Sequence to fold (464 residues):
Amino acid sequence: MLDVLVIGGGNAALCAALMAREAGARVLVLESAPKEWRGGNSQHTRNLRCMHDAPQDVLVDAYPEEEFWQDLLKVTGGRTNEQLARLVIRASSTCRDWMRKHGVRFQPSLSGTLHVARTNAFFMGGGKALMNAYYRSAENLGVEIRYNATVDSLEMDGDRFVAARIGNERIPARTCVVASGGFESNLAWMREAWGQNEAGEWPADNFLIRGTRYNQGTLLKFLLGAGADPIGDPTQSHCVAIDARAPLYDGGICTRVDCVSLGIMVNRDAVRFYDEGEDFWPKRYAIWGRLVAQQPGQIGYSIIDAKSIGRFMPPVFPGEKAATLPELARKLGLDEAVFMKTVNEFNAACRVGTFDHAVLDDCHTEGVQPPKTHWARPLDTAPFYAYALRPGITFTYLGVKVDETAAVHFGGKASKNLFAAGEIMAGNVLGQGYTAGVGMSIGTAFGRIAGLQAAAAALSSLQG
Ligand SMILES: Cc1cc2nc3c(=O)[nH]c(=O)nc-3n(C[C@H](O)[C@H](O)[C@H](O)COP(=O)(O)OP(=O)(O)OC[C@H]3O[C@@H](n4cnc5c(N)ncnc54)[C@H](O)[C@@H]3O)c2cc1C
Fold:
């Protein structure tokens, strides 16, 4: 019989598979996607957030445990499990040597609006290269991998895993790691979770999914139905405002638009709705998808002027461009009079000090709602640019409850042979909000723990 069955084919799954194999277990990975689309959302990533007390290879300066924890506490508004969060934070300081051993390479961050050279280690070649390296290493170590292998359900004996099922096929194993992602790709479930708004709209109908189409949440639903303890809220997710022209799935990072904090954001009614300069973009970019989701028609428009060009990573697709603001409003199909009133009020409210996008500068507004607390400069220099943005779902936070061994809990009790890692349990650490790179920190930490624990449980059951 198999020792460890790993369900999923992304970062968390491969970390688990590699660790289990290194611990001497016989491991099979079941990946829903075909080989060319393997790697789930992890194939789209660029970096992971790492704690460090002094400069380390590609990371400058220091990012101590306490600062990382405070960042997490702030973005989650306290909806996090401190013990599990600190476990992730500490693991992030030591995982890179292990990653390198399996072929992952790092590079210093490029400059841009994400000021992350201190906090985030970038993968050379991005997440695709990272996943290819892990698959290569897994194959070399003798991990068996099956593609086009969507697990429909599990056979459980109470809280004990017995076998996985793919159609009529039954795959028994001593232990199992479920690392099958969130449910973000399941549009029907997203629709149900978000429901209808007061205007009678179904907001999820206008969502775009930034990553894989294979995270359908089949096993998450199954486990919750089988009595696994839930964690997180189904409407909470990592949700970015992305280029409205992005494809429904797998648009990846090239659909990101990073100029929100440099200008203003207006909704379909041509009015502003949130402080665009609240904090640094890496700490705020993931709230904007949700903010746009709450607007009529689930659309927003980021408006900048010529002064901002060159100050942010240029989007792959050019935005609307106009010589005057009224012309821009017409091109966007916005009410010209309301748009001009919004811009004129904003411009008049700007108190420009010393503009510096690299610090929380003193350029702010006075007497306009909502305020813009940093980087507030009048939109007065032609040409003017606009990007239409829609909610882009990265991953959902509803998951299964785990403990520090990654064991899945049923009725408050840890399963002895069923473990979870990655998005399917990320809600234990991320009750809401996000800070760039922490998804891979969670998946890497818990993937490695789950693999080790699953191998230990499988091998000890052999001896027992
Ligand atoms: C565009 C984009 C950019 C991102 N950038 C970053 C970044 O730079 N840094 C960062 O930290 N995070 C980033 N994230 C978030 C990050 O991708 C996730 O936090 C992380 O990849 C989660 O890893 P995972 O292994 O849990 O899930 P995934 O990588 O999504 O893997 C889930 C796997 O499960 C498989 N699967 C699903 N259902 C089944 C089933 N029933 N049977 C078998 N297999 C199944 C899927 O095919 C997939 O292979 C990004 C996400 C996106 C979409």
In short: Residues 239-391 form a domain with the Flavocytochrome C3; Chain A, domain 1 fold (CATH 3.90.700.10).
